[in-house]
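re: that complex we talked abt at group meeting.

here r the seqs, copy pasted straight from the sheet so there may be weird spacing, ignore it
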Amino acid sequence: MKLYSTNNKALRVSFKEAVFNSLPEDKGLYMPEVIPQLDPLFLRNIQQYSLQEIAFTIANTLIGADIPVNDLKKIIKDAIDFDAPVKFLAADTAVLELFHGPSYAFKDFGARFMSRVMGYFSAADDQLLDVLVATSGDTGGAVALGFLGVEGTRVTILYPKGKVSEVQELQLTTNGQNIRAIEVDGTFDDCQALVKRAFNDQELNQQLRLTSANSINIARLIPQTFYYFYAYAQLKAQGVDRVVFTVPSGNFGNIGAGLLAFKMGLPVEQFVAATNANDTVPRFLKSGHYEPKPSVQTLANAMDVGDPSNWVRIQDLFGKDIEELKKIITTYTYQDQETKAAMEQLYHSYHYIACPHTAIAWLASQAYKGEHPGQYGSVFLSTAHPCKFPDAISEEVFAKIKLPAGAEKLDAKNKEVVALAVDYDAFKHYLLNHK
Ligand SMILES: *Cc1c(COP(=O)(O)O)cnc(C)c1O
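got the structure back, here u go
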């Protein structure tokens, strides 16, 4: 697999280089030089395969010789060790649950696969790989649990003090081993700025082998295609041939992976991008003008992104042709009041407790169906378990949540965290003195 930069199509780097750099120096995004087509026979018989078998076929088709078949099989077996079931709430209402991994959010797919790929590529090196990551909640947990125990790696997570939920904080701070958590007395943007500065610090880079677990890393994108194919397989077993996927979107990495799957041959009727008040992409598709705005805080806070970093990649997939993009992507935007009402309605109509992001996806999938009655299967993506978002869910409904296995145990674990002010020198001092 060779990749170019969206800012320089003449550039070619190896998969390994793209994984460790995350971003090309020209600040574009890495894209595969060619998008390989899946064997039509595989797609026709896809309902016969397990999630791991599907994941292997897709990863192997994309990555090719960069990871030998047996090594790739091992990586997949280890990384994708949880289910992604499609559940039917009603005959025409299906949800793809992506929260059955260790951090109870879909980011586990990306983080677990990336961690093992990084571990694999750095196994031959002597120097420890230091992963730095800033999180507003979900990314950090997935990265921490994804890298936990992966040899040759160490993860340092920065999160804003008091601004993540209890489950999220416990997932960040109770791991031990090769995972360290730093609680920053500031905002997510402060955390992000500290990490960015560390990556640009020459002295630090001479002493440590730093890498990021950024959501735009190609090794996070690839595994997110797996569950689109697997959802299709599950629907195909029910006689469905084409699917409309509704994706709750923030940075547009999840839906970007779906669009990559589509380009590889997955029969998708339409992608519905559901957003909260952070509606830069919906506005762009209406007006043709890309006008990012500072993010605004909403109940669905993992989607509070004013300038979605994966959008460039999606545009690149469609040759920057806005008419082509409009043919395959429909968008809907919802405010917090609607999100709240949707969570109540899902509970009262189906006894289904959804996180706010998932509830927004459900609203959009209903809206699309209303405007486009037709012959297709419709699936909305559930990106996180509701137990991660107590502040967004009414007390009555929250009390009814069945905690996933392992969530009760979090409380009993030892919490270990380092507290820092928003102070780059203190952060650097910590990194240099805790090697
Ligand atoms: C990260 C996240 C999203 C947004 O996904 P993107 O890939 O950034 O569009 C949606 N829901 C949850 C629960 C998330 O953690």
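couple things i noticed - The pocket of pyridoxal-5'-phosphate is lined by residues 105, 107, 138, 248-254, 302-303, 355, 357, 383-384 (CB under 6 Å). Residues 218-236 form the longest helix (19 residues).
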